[in-house]
Amino acid sequence: MRAALLSFALGVLFLRAFASLPSLPLLAALAAMALGLLLTRFLALGACGLGLAWALLNAHWALDDRLAPALEQRVLWIEGQISGLPAVDADAVVFVLAGATSRRDLKLPARIRLNWHGGPRPLAGERWRLAAELRGPAGLVNPLGQDREAWLLAQGIGATGSVKDGQRLAAASGLATWRDGIRQYLQTRNPAGQGGLLAALVVGDGSGITDAQWQLFQDTGTVHLMVISGQHISLVALSVYAGVVLLARRGLWPSRLPWRLSAAVLTIATALGYGLLAGFEVPVQRACVMVTLGLLWQLGRQQVRLADAVLLALVLVLAANPLVSLLTGFWLSFGAVLLLLWSFAGRLGRLPWWATLGRAQWCMAVGLAPLLLALGLPLSLSGPLANALAVPLMDLAIVPLALVGTLLSLLWSPLGEPALWLAGGLLQGLLWVLTGLAHLAAAWQPVLAPAWTLWLAGLGALLALLPAGVPLRGLGALLMLPGLFPPVPAPGEGLARITVLDVGQGLAVLVRTRDHALLYDAGPRQGSYDSGARVVLPNLKGTGIDTLDVMLLSHADADHAGGALAVARGLPPGRVLSGEVGRLQPQLRARDCEDGARWEWNGVGFTTWWRPDADSNAASCVLRVEARGERLLLTGDIDARREAELVASGKPLAAEWLVAPHHGSRSGSSAGFIDAVQPRGVLISRGLNNRYGHPHPQVLARYRERGVLPYDTAALGALTWTLGRWEVPRGQRQERHWWRIPPPTP
Prior knowledge:
With about 750 residues, the chain is α/β, with parallel strands linked by helices. The protein is built from 25 helices and 22 strands.
């Protein structure tokens, strides 16, 4: 039976490997074959096929639930109920509308994620009628960074959109309303200034955690402690069970109630109740299933193996929603538990509590490293020490105080406030300690590693975690080295590696020679979203860049320079140049771009052109890069007038590749400028369905009339090629995954 359960889980997990989904007839044939194997007692093969068929069927259902292309960017009146907890972000509120319907009987996705700028704050459980402009569930696609399309699909969200107007139809009701009330109470009372973190610990809502706090938790490897995790569920469940046992042993438990059955029922009810309060995410599901199974087996007087409980929890979680395998949290949650089983299995004797805690942190640091590398996540160098300090404090003090304080506050607020204030104070002290550790050792973003090095690193981690004295254990560290420090191929002499990052409505272009790196613009910043921190910086480090020689900010508009400060803090550049120094943050210490400045790196030529007396878009510093006779022209947001000046100046504008001025706006890409440049291809960096209408149809028509091929980041994702080899740019979306919206056919 264990082999069959494991095979079913592996079949479901194999879903991630598909580039495209097989047709429904093929899927039906697979299911029939799997059932046949089960009936002929080939249980493992049949279970694997059944798991794969079930996962593929769910994937088809999820894709069918996406917004129809005909409804893209249409404003529709829709009705539905607010699902989950709305999150307030700057001047906007973000929420999910479930069960959406339209009076026109249009087919809408079951769940739609909406944002409402400047509108009222809907409450969980309310029913609303909204005028919303709907869009498909697309996202940015870069070598590193969150795969938003996969995340939305796993959450069952088939569309996104922005609300234009709305009216409430019915008051809040249901469990979500209760959760929202607790969250608002904690955030309003704000004990010791930590209301956002307390809400995360009590109701599993992380929207009140600031970007700076998230970065701190990432740097110290303590993210898993700051929202409700399986560890917190297990802790609360164990406390309830231990309380009943203590009362029974002291003769204080009612004799007419069997204490063993009562303890099991109360513990399971507490775990499930806390899980529902937490929103029942994957780590919580795993913990609830394991607690329930362990207690049920104990009631049956059977010896339970922890590995069996983990396996059954894995199967149940995957069977309930096979698409959770697209979520990072799924892999980290189950990976952590399996690593602990591997690390502590087969050891003789018992370790003292402090040694057990230390070994667990060592296991997490070493064992999860290959998984974090595979997921493109940074490694926390201070994580073992930070967790060794934070785990006991969270488990034994902060979480119990937060829960008890909240429970007492529901009865009468003055009863619970002392506990909440004490929990908030302890959190504040913990943040102070974590800040010191983060300053000593921030998170390290390793270079993107080839698949073979990741497999070696995984094998090495398993060997390193074996008990002392096991043969080949010392080989583990050596096997991990290629994954941690993979070979980084650098461009050859006279060549430049170009990457146009997918930053949405903005621009960020990396130019890398053999020994140098230049960043042209740093992506947008809007509200709390900073693409410099979330997209540009991780991808710079992920390509092996540890020194940024020049950051050239074409001008100071937020879509070009908004992410500059985050990049400069994470990877201090040797020089910062710009066409609008006066409008940039003083911390950047930028200098004026020079008109006609030239320099050479590793046989690659760079030239800048700038008009000192211009302002705004026309002040954009233009950069030309030339490698072995092949040229790239980066133009910022120059307009048609500035284009005409450049043409009239007689500057050598001819280039094989042109970054479209102003994202393809109608104000630029004049016919005379295109004729002067004569590009093979035009690179358009913009956000999908942006409100500016970029690129303008007339601009695209001008390029097509001249045989210039467009390469659009909104359609293709990040674009990469080597200048000097006369290649064609390749988009990140061309690496096919079944859940991604495919790139258009050229």
